[in-house]
Amino acid sequence: MVTLALDRVSARYGRRDILSDASCPPIPGGVLTALVGANAAGKSTLFRRIAGQLGGRGSVHLSGATLDELRYMPQDTAMNAALTVYESIILALKQGEGGWRLAAQDLAAVDAVLARFDLSALAQRQLPELSGGQRQAVSIAQTLVTGPRVVLMDEPTSALDLYRQYEVLEALRAYAAETGAVILLALHDLNQVMRNCATTLALSSGHVLACGPTLEVLTPDLIRNLYGIEARVERCSRGEPVLIVDGPSAA
Ligand SMILES: Nc1ncnc2c1ncn2[C@@H]1O[C@H](COP(=O)(O)OP(=O)(O)O)[C@@H](O)[C@H]1O
Ligand SMILES: [Mg+2]
């Protein structure tokens, strides 16, 4: 199994500190981990820092995988290239490799990732003709086609309808379970987080407020600290935890 730990990780833009000594114990692979926090808390910055696009003090520790097995899907992915969905996924598969020869197993990997994310019917469509949600699903397939063992996805469900959100999160869970990969997802819907993510890392103003099993992390106190919202976790008629929002906390 792969794990990812943070040891006093910092990052800045210019002279402004965005992440300050962000630390967490090893995040386990094989399950989904949510990265939660208010707008501008530093989630995207933490992803860029882990992916090596930003420097800074402190270190990111991977065990069971190396940095070339890491894939990062940014929050906004432009897709203006005149390529079909199928071609774009081949391109993602071959990126960073020396040659362009396609083996049978390459085509099999593309077909498998299209099937996994229910995109086979879109394979021959042109990227610029896709809807926002379709584009987001294609980005996810591009991110996973190489079989990465460390996956960072920045708000991967933000453009998806309810059915697609469910489907994509189920497929990501299955991928994690099959491969043991560490999968860190920035998500805003805390009910989605409770249903799908075994682990949660909570960021506030560039500091890690909590990291651990989701139901232990998402307490009313933590949610108040993160978002300034009063909320309760209760059990629904089927015994599953659900988050109920009562309103803004008193200043
Ligand atoms: N390229 C950049 N240059 C300067 N400041 C940035 C840049 N990107 C983000 N920031 C600032 O860093 C802070 C954290 O941003 P970000 O990591 O995008 O937050 P989140 O993803 O949690 O919403 C914000 O205050 C934002 O304005
Ligand atoms: Mg962001």
Based on secondary structure, the structural category is alpha/beta
Shape: globular
> Over the alpha carbons, how many angstroms does the gyration radius reach?
19 Å
Q: Could you name the CATH homologous superfamily of the largest domain? A: P-loop containing nucleotide triphosphate hydrolases
Number of helices: 8
CATH class descriptor of the largest domain: Alpha Beta
Low-confidence stretches: none
Determine the strand fraction and express it as a percent band: 25-35%
Q: In CATH terms, what is the architecture of the largest domain?
A: 3-Layer(aba) Sandwich
The major beta sheet can be summarized as: 6 strands, mixed
Order of helices and strands: EEEHEEHHHEHEHEEHHEE
Describe this structure in words.
- This protein is α/β, with parallel strands linked by helices.
- It has 2 domains: 3-218, P-loop containing nucleotide triphosphate hydrolases (Rossmann fold); 219-251, no CATH class.
- Helix content is 32%, strand content 31%.
- The chain contains 8 helices and 11 strands.
- The strands form 3 sheets. Strands 5-6-7-3-8-9 form a 6-stranded mixed sheet, with helices on both faces.
- Helix 2 packs across helix 3 and helix 2 runs parallel beside helix 4 (132-144).
- The N and C termini lie far apart (44 Å).
- The structure holds adenosine-5'-diphosphate and magnesium ion.
- Residues 13, 18, 37, 39-45 line the site of adenosine-5'-diphosphate.
